[in-house]
Amino acid sequence: MLSGTKTLIVDDNPDVIAVLSDFLAFNGCEVHKAVCGREAIDVLAKRDIDVVILDVQLPDINGINLIDTIKVDRPATAVVMATGYYDPNFVIDAMKKGASDFLLKPFEFDKLLLVMMRVIRERNLLIEKENMMQNLEDKRKIEHLNRALQKKIRELTTMYHISNKFNAINIFEDVYEKMIHIVGETLDVRSCGYYVADPEADELVLYTGHVKDGGDPGADWKRVGLPDEFKKDYRGPRKHLVRDNKVYLPLVIQGEPIGFIMTEAKLNGGNTPTTLDNDIFFLRLIAEKASTQIENRMLYESLFENILHTLRSLIIAINRRDFYTDGHCKRVTNLSLALGERLRISEYEKDVIRVVGPVHDLGKIGIPDRILLKPEKLTDDEYAVMKSHSEYGEEIMSRFEILAKEAKIIRHHHERYDGRGYPDRLAGDDIPVCSRIIAVCDAYDAMVTDRPYRKGMEEDAILTEMTRCRGSQFDPVIVEAFNEIIRDGYDC
Ligand SMILES: [Fe+2]
Question: How far is the CA of 377 from the centre of ligand 1 (A)?
Answer without folding.
Answer: 16
